[in-house]
Structures are given as C-alpha cells and as structure tokens.
Amino acid sequence: MIRGVVMEKLQLEATQYTPEINLDPAGIMAFSGKSYPENTFDFYQPVMEWLDQYFANELPKRTVVNMEIVYFNSSSSKLFFDMFDMMEEASGEHSLEVNWIYDPENESAREAGEDFIEDFEKLTINLIEKG
Amino acid sequence: MDIKAIEKILEADGIVFLTYGGFITQSLIAGMTDALERESEKKDINQRLANNIFVIFIELSQNMMNYSKSRENAGGEFDPKGLIMVGKGEGDSYYVLSQNILDSGDRDKILPKLEEIQGLDNDGLKRRYRELRKSGRDSHGKGAGIGFYEIAKRCDQIKYEFISIGDDKFYFQFKAFVK
C-alpha cells in the first residue's frame, strides 16, 4: 500500500536570525538557535509543509522534537504555537514528545516553555535544563 | 556636523549602547542585535535581562521595518526613517527607545493596544498575550500582532507619545524600561 510520498530530511543551517533546523522522517526533529526572521511565516513555510506531510504519512514508533531556542520574536512565538497545535493534534494517535531545552541562566526561555505547557495540555512538553 | 551636540544628547539619555537613525533593514537589525550581545557580555549583564533587551529591540525595529515596507508598497509619500536607541537608565535599569513617523490612521490602530497594555497587571498581560497568540486574531502577514504585548511582558514599564508634526502626521515615540 502506498502511503503518500517518501519523506526526505529537511535541513537548514542557522543564520544570525534563524535557528538550525533538522527534520528527520525517522522521527527526530531539532530546532536550535535564535528565531527572528524578516518574515517568519515565509521562513517556516517549508517546515510546516514538511510536518504536514510527515503526519499524513506512516509514522515511526515515536517522534521526538528538541527545541532549543535562545530567544525569539513575537511572530516566531505565534508560529511555534501553531506548530505545537499541529503536533498536539497528531499526538492523539501517536507517541510524540517535545523537549523544550534551555540554559539555566535563561529564565525567559524557561518561562516561554512553561507557557506552552499550560497552553497544550494534551501535548507532552518536557522542560529540560541544560547541564 | 556638530559631534559635541550629538554627544550631549546621548549623555543626557544615560550611557548609550547603541543608536541608529535611518532606513532599517533585516541585516541591519541582525548586525545591531549582534553588537548588543557583545556589549551585554562585556558589561556582564545577566542573561534574563540581556535577552529581554534583545527581544524588545528586535520587536521595535522589526515593527518599524515592516511598517515602512507596507507604506512603501502602498505608494505615496512617506519618510521611512526610524530611530532606535538602547541605553542604561537610572540605577540598574536599561531602556530601548524607538521613534518613527505615523499618520492618524496608524495611531488609531496602535493606541487602543497600548492603552489596554497600560491597564493590565503582569498576570493580566500574560493571559492576554496567550489569548491573542491562540486566537490568531489581529494577525497579518508580517507579524502576529502581539509585538507590543511581547514587549510589555518583558519590561518593567512602557511610555509612549504621539507628537503631532502637522499634516496628519505624528512622531510615535516609544520607550521600554527593563530591569
């Protein structure tokens, strides 16, 4: 049975204002760096499309999303919200976990993670302090 | 050019880390944010405070950038120059100041948001921010429409003023104090 297209990895290198992004159809995703693109929705469009397709396909046993964002602008905040919304929906029938990773000195990154946890009751978001 | 006069203005506003007046682009914003990061490392500012300064700086400068882009696309006469400044205020406080030119229509869009923010305490602000982020209302292509709420969440106090310069135009001055 054909279940959609064969997914390829999506890899984007970090810039001064966008994070490094690695999306692997084997179920491991990572975002790390800063996020304040000139046009947030344009920048993340390929990411959102990739995720859309990923969740429409046959999924691996589990998905792990590592988010390590040092700081981000308000439109990135909105974008991450929409992304978590998509993930929460998929996590109903699929094992998916988000690790929100922050530096112990970066209080605002921790608070941002706590806000997301409150907003997404059905999505597993782990707060992880970097050692 | 009278450099001394400029220095006087800067001194009167405390110790200035960074000041720029002119046309604002994304690469300029990234470069200035980078300079701010170096400055705050050198001055050993704690990371919470430093990140709040960076985000407020980014919000205000991207606001001005997006605004001038939208005005240029709309055609007509418009002065795209903005002013942005980051400095050290009294005690341990820092500030981010921005100024650009708006017309009365834009003022009428911004003012209710700013007035709402002024009337909210920290919890109310946090709640409102998350409410707006969730609903996606007030969102447009460039941003999420929650920029001023983001700024207010990260600072101690905001001050703003719309100064009429005639011909339906205003200087929009905004200052955020961070501690």
Automatic annotation (TrEMBL), chain A:
Residues 12-129 form the SiaC family regulatory phosphoprotein domain. Pfam families: SiaC. InterPro entries: SiaC (IPR018530). This is SiaC family regulatory phosphoprotein domain-containing protein.
Automatic annotation (TrEMBL), chain B:
NCBIfam families: SiaB_fam_kinase. It comes from the Bacteria. This is Uncharacterized protein. InterPro entries: DUF6272. It comes from Marinobacterium zhoushanense. The lineage of its organism: Bacteria, Pseudomonadati, Pseudomonadota, Gammaproteobacteria, Oceanospirillales.
